[in-house]
Amino acid sequence: MTLELHLHPLSSYCWKVVIAAYELGTPFEPVTVDLGDPAARAEYLKLSPFGKIPALRDTARGVELFETSVMIDYLDQYYPGAAPLIPADRDAARAVHLRDRIFDLYVHNVFQRIVADRFRSEGQGDAPGVEQARTQLRQAYDVLERDLDEKTWAAGESFSLADCAAAPALFYSDLIEPIGAERPVLTAYLKRLLARPSVVRAIEEAKPFFQHYPATAEERARLAPFG
C-alpha cells in the first residue's frame, strides 16, 4: 500500500490523522509503533526524529512526515476526498488553522501533561503542575464555548482539519476534566463529534487498548460507555 501511518491506536494525536484519512476515504496501512523496544525505537527515529507518533510515509511519492497538521494538509492535497479538510480560500483556511492550533496547543497538549504526570515515580509527581493544567483546560473550554456558538463544526458549517484535532482532544480531556453542563455549546459540539462516522471508527479501533489507559476509577467509569 502506498501510505503507511505509523501509530498506536490509543494515541490521541494518531486519532487526529486517522480521522482525517477516514473523512477523505484515503486507504492506508497502519503500522503499530513500539517505542519501548530499543531497536524499534531506533528505527522509528529515522522516520520521526523527535520520537513522536504518528508519522506518515508515502512510498509512492517518497515523502515522510511527522507533524499531524502537516500530514493532514498533505493528505488533503494529494489524496483528496469528496470535501476538502482545508478550504481553498485563504481566509477560510486561516480560520481552520487557528482552531486546529487552539485544540492542539490549549487542549491536547495540556491534558497530556496530566496523563504524563501519572507515569512519574512515586513521590515525583507535580501536583501544582497538574492543577495548573486543569485550570488551563477550563479556560480553553470557556474560550471554545464562546467561539463555537452558532457553529456546527469548529470553523463553520464544514467538517475540517480543526474538527480532526478537536475530536481526540476533547474526548480525552473531557475524561480528565469534564466539560460540564455549564458549557452546553461545547458539550453539544463534542456530542456531534462523537457521532461522526470517522470518529466512531477511530474509537472502535481503540477499544481493545482502553484497558491500558492510565485512568482513575472516576475516569474509567466515564470511559465505560465507549467500551
Describe this structure in words.
The protein is of the alpha+beta class. The protein has a domain at 90-196: Glutathione S-transferase Yfyf (Class Pi), Chain A, domain 2 (Up-down Bundle). Helix content is 55%, strand content 7%. The protein contains nine helices and four strands. The chain has helices spanning 12-24, 38-44, 68-78, 90-117, 127-147, 161-176, 184-195, 197-206, 217-223; strands at 3-7, 29-32, 55-58, 63-65. Strands 2-1-3-4 form a four-stranded mixed sheet, with helices on one face. A hairpin with a 4-residue loop joins strand 3 (55-58) and strand 4. The longest helix has 28 residues, at 90-117. The radius of gyration is 17 Å and the shape is globular. The model has no long low-confidence stretch (mean pLDDT 95).
Relevant terms:
alpha+beta; Glutathione S-transferase Yfyf (Class Pi), Chain A, domain 2; 9 helices; 4 strands; 7% strand; globular
